[in-house]
Amino acid sequence: MLQLDEAASDRLRDIVEQLRDSRVIAVLEATIAGVWHANTARYEPSDLGDTPRSLGITAAENIRELVLRQKWGPASTDELGRDVQITAPSGSLLVESRGVNLLVKKADSMVSLVEPDWSGFEWATESDVRRAAARNNKARYNPLQIGGGTLFDGAFPVEGDPKTLRDVILVWAGGSSSPNTAGWLGLPTESADHPWLAVQQIWWHQADPGSSQRDHIGPTDPDADTFERRPLPQPEIRLKPKPKTAGE
Fold it and tell me: Does residue 201 contact residue 217 with C-beta atoms inside 8 Å?
């Protein structure tokens, strides 16, 4: 069960608003959606031996390269705020905007689009940059009871200030049987039992019929202008055609 810290959730909402203002979320959503749509269209387990893992790896590589190009392309001024910096330390996409550090991670492989199991994330087995993000957040704000494994309930003083949290991870998901994607922004923390301080859904593109989408995490106002209510972005994604085989 996902337990969220109220103060961290407030901070996350501010971060989401900031990243939307600088168009970081819009660019990432459009790029991820376009890449996944293109890659699932050419996904051929039977003929080419594709696997869900290879599909995810290819998509992650495509997303990193295309987002890096966004900053330096001719339309970069219109697409991203001038304060946005994009790099790839140790091969991991990093987007920096006004003191916020954003990393990108694909959820585990899945056939149909579903929400990830948030309690199943283990930062100890993740990349150095993701472990560092969780560790940094814990150092800035730690609402966990010492040894209790439960979120702070008022019995102990809170360590740090949630307003200083700055490391977020965009977790996106896509099923191999569908071109649709979903994305969440979360504040990771270094805890075996509760790896997230807060999580907010930022888009969900036309969930598959009968999918096991869980309770919505994020804006609940039916009139809110949320990304899942907007048309699917259509970025220009060009992929090389597969070489023709003899006889084609």
Answer: yes
Q: What is the pLDDT of residues 133-191, one digit of tens each?
A: 999 999 999 987 544 444 555 555 678 899 999 999 999 999 888 889 999 999 999 98
Nearest to 169 by CA among 106, 82, 232: 106
> Rounded distance, CA 94 to CA 90, Å?
10
Can you give the pTM of this predicted structure?
A: 0.77
- What is the end-to-end Cα distance of the chain in Å, rounded? 52
55/115 Cα distance (integer angstroms): 18
CA 47 to chain centre: 31
Tokens of 175: 């099923």
Three-state secondary structure call for residue 207: coil
Q: What one-letter code names the amino acid at 127?
A: S
Rounded Cα distance between 223 and 234, Å, is 24
Cα 85 to Cα 76: distance, rounded to the nearest angstrom: 11
102 within 8 A of 168, measured Cβ to Cβ: yes
Helix H or strand E encompassing 25: helix 24-41
